[in-house]
Amino acid sequence: MMCEDCGIRPAKFHLMTIINGDRVERNLCPSCMARHQKQIPGIDFTNLAGILNSILESRGNDEQEQIDAEAQSCVCEQCGMTYVEFQKCGMLGCANCYQAFKTPLTSLLQRVHGNTQHAGRVPGGAHNGTSIRMNIDRLKQKLQRAVADEEYEQAARLRDAIRALNMQLERKDADIKVRPHERITTDGEGEANDNV
């Protein structure tokens, strides 16, 4: 659904105003909503995030209760471990348990870590551009979402950031390809010396 004010960006907010008994509803994008926020006196939007968070948490709790109820009956076919036993001891019985308990484990990881995909650090000795490639992949995912949401300005910024990281990666790869003993340096008088 597109914003009813600008007609350009997707609507993310539903604004309902009642003035003199007349109810007016509008679907607005974030920038048009910000403009309307300035025009509406007496409304405090600063706590809107807290209100929305509590609504989403209550919805999440209902979903979590349903997942927990379903998890109570989960049993691994290979080793016979139940999800209740896993909750008591904290260890899975076999590799097949990951598949058997996939839904409750995914929910558990989301609650505990805030994500279901590992996003740890790269080992100290690995200076081969791995972290740059990971950032490029992350930005490409954000770019796809921005294009799908028709947020073209954000998409352009992400595209530029990806290009910059690709250039940085190319420079890093070029530095790795030239071994230190193959580099030619100049001494103080400007003559080229071969460091062997």
**Biggest pleated-sheet summary:** 2 strands, antiparallel
- Contiguous helical run count: 7
Radius of gyration using CA atoms only:
27 Å
- Assess the beta-strand content as a share of residues: 5-15%
Apparent shape: flat
Q: Based on DSSP secondary structure assignment, what is the total number of beta strands?
A: 4
Portion in helices: 40-55%
List the domain count as a whole number.
Answer: 3
Order of neighbouring strands in the sheet with most strands: 1-2
Overview of this protein structure:
With 196 residues, the chain is mainly alpha-helical. Helices cover 52% and strands 10% of the residues. It contains 7 helices and 4 strands. It has helices at 30-39, 48-71, 83-89, 97-100, 102-113, 130-148, 152-177; strands at 13-19, 22-28, 184-186, 192-194. The strands form 2 sheets. Strands 1-2 form a two-stranded antiparallel ribbon. Helix 6 (130-148) packs antiparallel against helix 7. The longest helix is centred in the C-terminal third of the chain and has 26 residues, at 152-177.
